[in-house]
Amino acid sequence: QFWKLPVRQSTGPLSTEACHLMQTCVPQSYFVSDYDPTIEDSYTKICTVDGKETRLDILDTAGQEEFGAMREQYMRSGEGFLLVFALNDRGSYHEVQKFHTQVLRVKDRDDFPIVLVGNKADLEQQRVISREDAQAFASDNGIHYMESSAKNRYNVDESFLELVKIIRRFQEMESTPPAAHHTGKQKSGGCPCVLL
């Protein structure tokens, strides 16, 4: 299996959150404390989830407003999204809420495989977004919420593995024909939804 996974991040210097998560997830053994945001970085990660090997094409996109059109292009092709914000930055939290709305608008759906990730869980004394607030937003929108620390490698791989599981469940539901109103006839030429 091969999936494209754009990682949504907040604007300007706040884009360090997704970068830190990405650099910790892929086979690199360092943490970058100062990050100069670029338009995009891509990574490939091979992982095994529930006995199935999956290759993830992970795109770490810049969150700057001037790249809005490019961001929508990534959203159209993405099969799952990590929305990453800093637990010590309220602005980044508000930005990922906007990204969530934008993903659903671009996909023209009420739901899609998304994991909300609160990064910098190691900075508990600087936290301004409570777990309860973030969990409430996630629950209200039917998405999964996790907290991570790229610095301590806490819940980094787990965030991506959880997203893979959610994508698989989503694809299984999309490819299962509805049982209701079955007339005994099958349409020819029909196919399950294909996610690029």
Labels describing this entry:
196 residues; Rossmann fold; six-stranded mixed β-sheet; 5 helices; disordered C terminus; prenylation; nucleotide-binding; Small_GTPase
Structure in words:
The protein is α/β, with parallel strands linked by helices and 196 residues long. The chain has a single domain (2-173), classed as P-loop containing nucleotide triphosphate hydrolases (Rossmann fold, 3-Layer(aba) Sandwich), CATH 3.40.50. It has helices at 16-25, 68-77, 90-107, 131-140, 156-175, and strands spanning 2-8, 40-49, 52-61, 81-86, 114-119, 144-147. Strands 2-3-1-4-5-6 form a six-stranded mixed beta sheet, with helices on both faces. β5 (114-119), α4 (131-140) and β6 (144-147) form a beta-alpha-beta unit. It is globular. The model is unreliable at 7-39 and 181-196 (pLDDT under 50).
CATH homologous superfamily - what is it?
P-loop containing nucleotide triphosphate hydrolases
* Secondary-structure element series: EHEEHEHEHEH
Strand content: 15-25%
Helicity range: 25-40%
Shape: globular
| Widest beta sheet: strand line-up | 2-3-1-4-5-6
Number of DSSP E strands: 6
Which regions contain 5 or more consecutive residues with pLDDT less than 50?
A: 7-39, 181-196
Main β sheet profile: 6 strands, mixed
The CATH architecture would be: 3-Layer(aba) Sandwich
CATH topology: Rossmann fold
Radius of gyration: 17 Å
Number of helices: 5
**Termini gap:** 12 Å
Give the helix/strand class. alpha/beta
Blueprint of the fold:
Elements: E1 2-8, H1 16-25, E2 40-49, E3 52-61, H2 68-77, E4 81-86, H3 90-107, E5 114-119, H4 131-140, E6 144-147, H5 156-175
Parallel strand pairs: 1-3, 1-4, 4-5, 5-6
Antiparallel strand pairs: 2-3
Main location: membrane
Keywords: Cell membrane, GTP-binding, Lipoprotein, Membrane, Methylation, Nucleotide-binding, Prenylation
Protein name: RAS related
